[in-house]
Amino acid sequence: MILKEIIDSVEFDAVWEVVQKEYPKQKEEKDSFAEMFSKLKVIEPVRKSENILDIEYRKDNDANEWYWDVCSVEPNSGKRYALDFLPWAEFIAFTLSEKILETLSKESIVAHCMWEMSFYGYNEEEIQAKSEADEDMEGTVSLEDI
């Protein structure tokens, strides 16, 4: 199952409940999330990678904090890649790992993915402009490089 199928199967209000619980600092951004959700409902997925989408609750030992890590995982090596600058059509085309389908609700999956997608803003064009302006960013990998 791909992320787009999950997005199409949930309602915004249920996703927003998860966002408020897991990301309380985002409470003022409901309109931005709602607009983003509406866009994701109409975008057609564009598959450019065989990597699997994974969501894992991880501890940042440096900050001694827990966080939700949303990334793509190379099936053979297990190498993890950040997704925050990825075009949304590519993001929603990822196949979901069996682990997250078994452990997280559909609304949680969408909430965590939307938070990751909006890490640098709520407008895809502005996010892509930031990405292009900062091509030297350490650790950023294009799907074409995978």
Describe this protein's structure:
The structure is a single chain. The protein has one domain (3-145). The chain is α+β, with helices and mostly antiparallel strands and 146 residues long. A four-stranded mixed sheet has the order 3-2-1-4. It is 42% helix and 16% strand. It is globular, with a radius of gyration of 15 Å. The two termini are 21 Å apart.
Structural descriptors:
alpha+beta; four-stranded mixed sheet; 7 helices
Summarize this, please?
The protein has 146 residues and is α+β, with helices and mostly antiparallel strands.
> How many strands?
4
Apparent shape: globular
Percent helix, as a range, is 40-55%
Q: Give the low-pLDDT segments.
A: none
Topology pattern, helix = H, strand = E:
HHHEEEHEHHH
- How would a crystallographer describe the biggest sheet? 4 strands, mixed
Strands in their spatial order, largest beta sheet: 3-2-1-4
The portion of residues forming beta strands comes to 15-25%
Radius of gyration computed on alpha carbons: 15 Å
Alpha-carbon distance between the termini? 21 Å
Supply the number of helical segments. 7
Number of domains: 1
What would you call the structural class?
alpha+beta
Mean pLDDT, to the nearest integer, reads 89
